Structures are given as structure tokens and as C-alpha cells.
């Protein structure tokens, strides 16, 4: 298992983010502080990528 680095929440700056399993092969990064969510993807890595890209924008 590779380590996945998640950037802090783009909305509230919280580091309390986690990757949540939505359903079969669907993952999503969510912020536990403000409940912002990234896009759902088929892998944790992709979900993290989407989340991290959002932070950069
Ligand atoms: Zn947040």
C-alpha cells in the first residue's frame, strides 16, 4: 500500500481530511471539519489527486 498525501482543506484549512469509501471502488476525500468533499474516483490515489488539485486552484 502506498502512502497518500492529502493537502489541507481548501475551504477551512483543516488537516482533518480522510479518504472515505463511498461504495464499490468509489473513493472520496472529505474534510471532517467543514464536510467539504472532493470528486469521487475509482481509486484512493485518484481521489487524493482530485482533492489536491482543488487545493492548488
Ligand atoms: Zn474543511
Give the secondary structure arrangement, pairings included.
Blueprint: E1 17-23, E2 26-31, H1 44-56
Antiparallel strand pairs: 1-2
Notes on the protein architecture:
A two-stranded antiparallel ribbon has the order 1-2. The radius of gyration is 10 Å and the shape is globular. It has one domain (17-56). Strand 1 (17-23) and strand 2 (26-31) form a beta hairpin. The chain has 57 residues and is an alpha+beta fold. It has one helix at residues 44-56; strands at residues 17-23, 26-31. The chain has one helix and two strands. The longest helix has 13 residues, at 44-56. It binds zinc ion (ZN). Residues 9, 11-12, 14, 31, 33-34, 36 line the site of zinc ion.
The tally of beta strands, per DSSP, is 2
Low-confidence stretches: none
Terminal Cα span:
28 Å
Task: Identify the strand order in the major beta sheet.
Answer: 1-2
Radius of gyration: 10 Å
How many alpha or pi helices? 1
Helix percentage:
10-25%
Structural class: alpha+beta
Bound heterogens, unique: zinc ion
Q: From N to C, what is the helix and strand string?
A: EEH
Q: Give the overall shape.
A: globular
Amino acid at each position: 500500500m502506498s502512502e497518500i498525501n492529502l493537502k489541507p482543506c481548501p475551504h477551512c484549512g483543516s488537516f482533518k481530511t480522510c479518504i472515505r469509501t463511498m461504495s464499490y471502488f468509489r473513493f472520496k476525500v472529505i474534510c471532517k471539519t467543514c464536510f467539504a468533499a472532493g470528486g469521487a474516483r475509482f481509486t484512493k490515489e485518484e481521489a487524493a489527486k482530485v482533492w489536491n488539485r482543488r487545493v492548488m486552484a
